[in-house]
Amino acid sequence: MRVSELRELTTEELGGRLQETRREMFNLRQQWYAGSLEDFNRRSAVRRDIARILTLLRERELLEEEEEMEKGGAA
Predict the structure, then answer these.
(1) N or C: which end of the chain has fewer CB within 10 A?
(2) What is the pLDDT of residues 15-32, one digit of tens each?
(3) If you write DSSP's letter for every residue of 6-73 in order, what string do you get?
């Protein structure tokens, strides 16, 4: 997943994508433990995707807090 693609999603869609990605990571871990994982690089790619999504969600959260502070300070 590219960051530019993720930035186009709404916060709700990012939350859903995060849930799907975490589920995929869980399945990859299960395959790894069972010894049936074929693409070992996929685990690190999924881990990076999770980090990207969490970063974007945090950025949006901080922007919302900043906007609330500006509205509260101006009133």
Answers:
(1) C
(2) 999 999 999 999 999 999
(3) HHTS-HHHHHHHHHHHHHHHHHHHHHHHHT----THHHHHHHHHHHHHHHHHHHHHHHHHHHHHHHHH
Distance, CA of 39 to CA of 58 (rounded, Å): 30
Largest interatomic CA distance in the chain: 61
Q: Domain 3-74 carries which CATH code?
A: 1.10.287.310
Which pTM value belongs to this model? 0.86
Q: Where are the domains of the chain?
A: 3-74
Q: How confident is the model at residue 1 (pLDDT cuts 50, 70, 90)?
A: confident
